[in-house]
Amino acid sequence: MQQLAIFGGTFDPVHWGHLLIAETALHQVPVEQIIWVPSLNPPHKQAVAFQHRLEMLKLATKDNPAFTVSLIEVNTPETSYAINTLIDLAADYPNTHWYWIVGLDTFQTLPRWHRRHELTQMCDWLIAPRLLGGENIAQSELICKQVEHQLRNQSIIIDWQLLHIPLVGVSSSLIRQLIRERQSIRYLVAEPVRVYIAAHNLYAK
Ligand SMILES: Nc1ncnc2c1ncn2[C@@H]1O[C@H](COP(=O)(O)OP(=O)(O)OP(=O)(O)O)[C@@H](O)[C@H]1O
Ligand SMILES: O=C(O)c1ccc[n+]([C@@H]2O[C@H](COP(=O)([O-])O)[C@@H](O)[C@H]2O)c1
Question: Which protein residue has the closest C-alpha to ligand 1 atom 23?
Answer without folding.
Answer: 172
